[in-house]
Design a protein that fits this description.
This protein is an alpha/beta fold. It has eight helices and eleven strands. Strand 1, helix 4 and strand 2 form a beta-alpha-beta unit. Helix 3 crosses helix 4. It is globular.
């Protein structure tokens, strides 16, 4: 029997949604508008958001006139995405390590650090291969990941987040090239402890994965305004590939 991964339980927890309920929708919208203006100001694309969560990026892409399909492993996220979105956006429960359609999409996106979660390092390559397979010729694949160098230099070992009547105690450490985030709290008369693990994939690692597919690098950006990537100072590592 396959051993479950940390995100399978945590991403379906109501406490996960509570802890991260302050995500910036305006920032997400600005990024998507900037990104699709960069890809084309007038073409309408078929887009696959391969880790869509509750669909906030999908909704913006839909508003821009694109035909959008969102998938996510977390069934509760997909349920929420369907409830919060227009009927013309497709949503499916799907593990992005598995193929999803072939030669079908104009754009595939992996946004907001939605890779690097896996126990098996090679599973990250599976994700990128599945993106390449899903794209039509000349289609685009976009990865929006954390900037590993900046994360290492600015890591905050301890913090406390308060949401409603729950206090989340958070610790972070780097071990075996992973950021390990431990989240502890008490709720509903129980004590909980969850752990997030994200491999610090850097630019060279992601480019190496792309070399093993049909994808060719087009641009590298360092933030959601699509300014140039600076390995020391940039908050994000945004890679645009073309098939």
């Amino acid at each position: 029997m396959r051993e479950s991964e940390w995100f399978e339980d945590w991403f379906n927890s109501k406490y996960y949604f509570l802890l991260y309920n302050n995500r910036n929708d305006d920032e997400a919208k600005r990024f998507i508008v900037n990104l699709f203006n960069h890809l084309s100001s007038d073409l309408k694309f078929k887009v696959w958001d391969m880790a869509c969560a509750k669909g906030r990026h999908c909704r913006v892409m839909n508003e821009l006139g694109h035909v959008v399909t969102g998938t996510d492993l977390a069934k509760d996220s997909i349920k929420a995405a369907i409830q919060q979105s227009k009927e013309d956006i497709e949503f499916y429960i799907h593990d992005m390590r598995l193929p999803f359609r072939s030669n079908y999409f104009d754009v595939v996106v992996n946004l907001f650090t939605s890779i690097g979660y896996f126990k098996r390092f090679e599973d990250n390559l599976k994700v990128i291969k599945n993106a390449a397979s899903a794209l039509k010729p000349n289609g685009y694949f976009v990865i929006d990941f954390l900037n590993a160098t900046k994360v290492i230099s600015c890591l905050k070992p301890e913090s406390i987040e308060e949401r409603e009547d729950i206090r989340f105690y958070i610790t972070k450490r780097i071990e075996n090239n992973q950021v390990i985030k431990t989240i502890k709290f008490s709720a509903d008369k129980k004590n909980y402890s969850f752990e997030e693990r994200v491999t610090l994939l850097n630019k060279s690692m992601l480019l190496k994965f792309a070399e093993l597919t049909e994808l060719k690098l087009q641009n590298i950006f360092g933030n959601y305004n699509l300014e140039p990537f600076d390995e020391i100072n940039s908050e994000r590592l945004i890679l645009v590939f073309k098939k």
